[in-house]
């Protein structure tokens, strides 16, 4: 058996190597025919004029440049009809090199999945991979070759609007999700009709923008970079990611776009990345504003020398690269390498064999939002909803309720549910299930469901309160749907205040004063701050943005058709002043043992140290008991491992899923170590009364970290082993030793 597996692996490796050599030969045969101008053309990417995802220059006659072979890729051209039309123009160029069509397919294409941060809350890697798979199937059927996803930036600052696009604050969870998304997008292999190239972004450290302000600078130690911010990129690369995107920020004073250390030394050097790097939108030209490059020529030179292969929208390569090569300032070999990397992907995608391979109207029709895609989106959405509070088991909704009021600015909204970075389907929103529609269709016909808006999302007027109070008073229970608008998070949407916008919390207070019990549903692209609501309301559901199946998924959870199982992938602060706040911080020399232990301690004098909700937190309609933690041994040598087992029992009335989380703490290190770090988890499902044994393996890898010489090592010593239901809810612990 083992022999057969080895033979199969060898065969696969040899076949892949042979295919690569063949592709390399074909790439070289094209490269030999190309003029310098045509080579630079391959490195140039434009957006379509109609749909922009950044500041458009839009001055130039693109058709003409396409015909002259001066464009290698387009973004934001979507749909079979349009991609076919633009490809047709590009194929009129001398060498007929096909274009690559890229698009931000971030969380679904037409079938829209929850925003990535919400998906991360599911801790369900198979569902996340499936979501990316569906997105790829639809995008590929719609003429797209390449998605600018996944974003794998670690996000520890909820003011940063882009936390919605990542997997949250944790490196371990983020790395697994990064790999799952790449596998989902790229499918079995590039070149298949349903595979799109992934683009891992933003390389690197973009998530640590100072003050949570988008595009801002990043100043970070190398150790922090390697230990916390780089691993998800490496995981995505190991999963086979075809391309990378660099980032807008400067890192320790060098813009990422011109950062040789990141792109040449780490990515293409140490990690041997053979795909290509695209700049972020205009980031090459923006190095002038950074104060790094004096003009466009200097920017182009720094970027290409640092390893940025394709110029998205800044036109710096188009305008300067030919001259730079002719003047000897940029070696031709550097340009050739970038072109090779891009052509190789075009070959791997099969575009030289058939440039219209992804252009089939019938397939497009069948793929978009079909029944199985809708089912996957609903499944992902219900798994993304976090139950934050549920006093007196107010949820799931009791069958005895006959008069329910559904109140708030988001109840009847349709497109809001898609969240930021969703692909708009102009003139069609019929496929999006609003929260009202989902709940109305699910509740029995004889349950009265009444509605009042109460206020708009950012309203300052209380004009709608009276009507809302009237509706609330006539009901047995009120469900309120409040939150941000979809465009309050996302790119360029950093916020200094994370409170519920407008008068929404005032509306919650007013409805609460009626005495009717209230369930609050919060829609957002980031952790918000809602202290009064958290303290006073009996039930709170965090729904993020759930996508096109939002209404159905929310109804699944509210009615108990699905028992919520999601866990927060990011810490929720009590106040903006606590930010950045994350669970895996260092201890300091003066840790505060509690909120009353403040004297000369590392604490705030005016606020608790604890978060509002901790990383890994999320409730279920049932309860789980953890016990019987057993280790096969308590001491291990570097080459050994410790096997750890515990029992988890469903002690409530509902079947449910639990994310069992393993945290470790290295008590003393040659550099200080975090108070705890997630090292593994299992999502298990249990019937009422059922017990399951959960096993974890602790090996040297799990005990390792980067020392001050950036060596990945495990140091002998004592480690705390903690298993729990959240980072602040450790149920069983032990101590082990590495000898
Ligand atoms: C800028 C964003 O930072 C990036 O993530 C995105 O892919 C590009 N614009 C293209 O829209």
Question: What would your notes on this structure say?
Answer:
- By secondary structure, this protein is α/β, with parallel strands linked by helices.
- Among the domains are: 1-30; 371-578, Rossmann fold (3-Layer(aba) Sandwich); 624-738, Sandwich (Immunoglobulin-like), CATH 2.60.40.
- It contains 22 helices and 26 strands.
- The strands form seven sheets. It has a six-stranded mixed sheet with strand order 11-16-15-14-12-13, covered by helices on one side. A five-stranded parallel sheet has the order 4-3-2-1-10. It has a five-stranded mixed sheet with strand order 18-26-25-20-21.
- Helix 2 runs antiparallel to helix 13 (316-326), helix 6 (125-141) packs antiparallel against helix 15 (361-367) and helix 12 crosses helix 13 (316-326).
- It starts with a helix and ends with a strand.
- 53% of the residues are buried.
- Bound molecules: 1-deoxynojirimycin (NOJ).
């Amino acid at each position: 058996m083992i022999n057969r597996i080895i033979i199969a692996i060898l065969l696969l490796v040899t076949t892949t190597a042979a295919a690569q050599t063949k592709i390399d030969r074909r790439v070289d045969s094209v490269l030999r025919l190309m003029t310098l101008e045509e080579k630079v053309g391959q490195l140039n990417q434009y957006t379509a004029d109609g749909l922009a995802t950044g500041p458009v220059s839009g001055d130039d006659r693109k058709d003409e440049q396409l015909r002259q072979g001066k464009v290698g890729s387009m973004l934001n051209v979507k749909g079979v009809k349009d991609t076919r039309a633009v490809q047709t123009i590009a194929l009129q160029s001398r060498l007929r090199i096909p274009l690559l069509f890229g698009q931000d397919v971030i969380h679904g294409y037409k079938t829209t999945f929850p925003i990535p941060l919400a998906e991360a809350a599911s801790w369900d890697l198979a569902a996340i991979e499936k979501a990316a798979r569906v997105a790829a199937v639809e995008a590929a059927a719609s003429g797209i070759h390449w998605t600018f996803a996944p974003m794998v930036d670690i996000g520890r600052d909820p003011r940063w609007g882009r936390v919605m696009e990542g997997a949250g604050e944790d490196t371990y969870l983020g790395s697994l999700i990064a790999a799952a998304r790449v596998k989902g997008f790229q499918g079995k292999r590039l070149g298949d009709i349903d595979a799109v190239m992934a683009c891992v972004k933003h390389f690197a450290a973009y998530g640590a923008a100072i003050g949570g302000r988008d595009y801002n600078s990043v100043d970070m130690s190398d150790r922090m970079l390697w230990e916390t911010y780089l691993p998800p990129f490496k995981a995505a690369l190991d999963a086979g990611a075809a391309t990378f995107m660099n980032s807008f920020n400067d890192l320790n004073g060098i813009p990422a776009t011109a950062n040789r250390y990141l792109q040449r030394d780490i990515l293409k050097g140490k990690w041997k990345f053979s795909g290509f790097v695209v700049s972020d939108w205009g980031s090459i030209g923006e190095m002038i504003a950074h104060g790094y490059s004096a003009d466009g020529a200097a920017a182009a030179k720094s970027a290409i020398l640092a390893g940025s292969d394709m110029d998205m929208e800044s036109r710096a390569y188009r305008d300067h690269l030919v001259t730079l090569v002719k003047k000897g300032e940029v070696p031709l070999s550097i340009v050739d390498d970038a072109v090779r990397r891009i052509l190789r992907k075009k070959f791997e995608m099969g575009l030289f064999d058939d440039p219209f391979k992804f252009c089939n109207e019938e397939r497009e029709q069948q793929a978009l939002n079909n029944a199985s895609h809708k089912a996957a989106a609903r499944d992902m959405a219900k798994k993304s909803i976090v139950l934050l509070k549920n006093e007196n088991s107010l949820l799931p909704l009791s069958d005895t309720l006959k008069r329910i009021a559904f109140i708030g600015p988001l109840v009847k909204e349709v497109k809001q549910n898609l969240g930021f970075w969703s692909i708009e389907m102009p003139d069609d929103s019929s496929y999006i299930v609003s929260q009202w529609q989902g709940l109305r269709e699910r509740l029995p016909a004889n349950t009265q469901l009444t509605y009042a808006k109460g206020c708009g999302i950012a309203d300052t007027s209380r004009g709608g309160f009276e009507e809302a109070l009237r509706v609330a008073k006539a009901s047995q229970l009120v469900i309120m749907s409040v939150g941000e608008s979809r465009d309050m998070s996302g790119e360029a949407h950093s916020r200094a205040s994370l409170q519920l916008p407008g008068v929404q919390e005032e509306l919650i207070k007013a409805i609460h004063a009626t005495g009717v019990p209230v369930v609050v549903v919060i829609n957002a692209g980031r952790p918000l701050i809602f202290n009064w609501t958290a303290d006073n309301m009996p039930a709170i559901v965090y729904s993020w943005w759930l996508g096109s199946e939002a209404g159905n998924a929310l109804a699944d959870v509210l009615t108990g058709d699905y028992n919520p199982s999601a866990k927060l992938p990011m810490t929720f602060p009590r106040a903006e002043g606590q930010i950045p706040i994350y669970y895996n911080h260092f201890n300091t020399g003066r840790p505060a043992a509690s909120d009353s232990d403040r004297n000369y301690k590392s604490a705030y004098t005016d606020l608790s140290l604890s978060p509002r909700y901790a990383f890994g937190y999320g409730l279920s309609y049932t309860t789980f008991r953890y016990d019987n933690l057993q280790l096969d041994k308590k001491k291990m040598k570097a080459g050994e491992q410790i096997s750890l087992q515990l029992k988890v029992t469903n002690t409530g009335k509902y079947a449910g899923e639990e994310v069992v989380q393993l945290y470790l703490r290295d008590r003393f290190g040659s550099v200080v170590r975090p108070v705890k770090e997630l090292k593994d988890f299992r999502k298990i499902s249990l019937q009422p009364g059922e017990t399951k044994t959960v096993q974890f393996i602790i090996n040297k890898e799990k005990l390792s970290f980067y020392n001050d010489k950036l060596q990945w090592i495990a140091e002998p010593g004592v480690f705390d082993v903690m298993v729990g239901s959240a980072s602040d809810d450790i149920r069983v612990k032990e101590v082990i030793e590495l000898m």
